[in-house]
User: Which sequence fits this backbone?
């Protein structure tokens, strides 16, 4: 069951276990749309098409493909702040008793291998598990939350720290929404295709040096709690994204920030790796 989904040069694609990609519209003889957002609206069709991959001819290798964000045009993108105890400790903040939520504007999203233009000397890295909502709704309980998750992907919540703290209260939204400051990918993986959707290893390295290394089991508010909390406030729609938070090891904790030429490598277990080059 399930699927691994990619945006290959603006077209919906499925990906097999060996890293080969299959154009969805071609694979289904036109029954499924080429537009990624339209294709994601029908996860049952994606699962059915995935079952036929073993008998199909691949279009190419994912490593050779031009990839965009697997969810390119979400209606809403949420960020969750201070959602690992280790990150609360390194920032000197209390562990929150309710989720700290901010908006990342969808225009910040970019693909898993895109170069990111640094617009200040205080850009920081933040590896995150990103959740895509499937069947939307209001008042989704934590017990039913995973039924409303379309898939999981890797994200970098690149943050302009000077902009973030330029005002009081802080500009979390603007600081994390510069063009290109939201790389995601390489694929969107349905929860049943990862080892344990509630406990995945994630890591981030900069220029080959590991800066962050943790597990999503250590989230203060896990995916079910976040879906329940957000859906009690507003309707969640198919394709909405939740950047679930980052563990300790960000650059601000040591006064170390990204520079042109730096390479950020972000990984989440069972999903894959994205590589972000700074310019």
Assistant:
């Amino acid at each position: 069951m399930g699927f691994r989904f990619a945006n290959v040069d603006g077209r919906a694609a499925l990906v097999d276990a060996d890293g080969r990609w299959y154009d969805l519209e071609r694979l289904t003889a036109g029954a499924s749309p080429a537009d990624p957002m339209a294709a994601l609206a029908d996860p049952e069709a994606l699962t059915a098409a995935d079952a036929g991959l073993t008998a199909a001819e691949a279009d190419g290798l994912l490593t050779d493909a031009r990839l965009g964000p697997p969810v390119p045009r979400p209606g809403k993108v949420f960020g969750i702040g201070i959602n690992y105890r280790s990150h609360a400790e390194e920032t000197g903040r209390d562990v929150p008793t309710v989720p700290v939520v901010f908006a990342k504007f969808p225009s910040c999203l970019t693909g898993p291998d895109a170069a990111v233009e640094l617009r200040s000397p205080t850009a920081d890295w933040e590896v995150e598990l990103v959740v895509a909502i499937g069947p939307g709704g209001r008042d989704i309980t934590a017990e039913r939350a995973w039924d409303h998750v379309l898939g999981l992907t890797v994200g970098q919540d690149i943050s302009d720290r000077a902009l973030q703290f330029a005002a009081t209260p802080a500009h979390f939204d603007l600081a994390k929404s510069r063009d290109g400051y939201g790389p995601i990918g390489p694929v969107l993986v349905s929860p049943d295709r990862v080892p344990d959707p509630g406990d995945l290893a994630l890591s981030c390295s900069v220029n080959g040096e590991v800066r962050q290394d943790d597990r999503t089991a250590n989230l203060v508010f896990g995916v079910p709690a976040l879906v329940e909390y957000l859906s009690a406030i507003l309707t969640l729609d198919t394709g909405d994204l939740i950047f679930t938070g980052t563990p300790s090891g960000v650059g601000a904790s040591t006064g170390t920030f990204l520079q042109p030429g730096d390479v950020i490598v972000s990984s989440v277990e069972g999903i894959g790796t994205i590589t972000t080059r700074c310019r």
Observations:
- Residues 125 and 154 are 13 Å apart (CA to CA).
- The first strand starts at residue 4 and ends at 8.
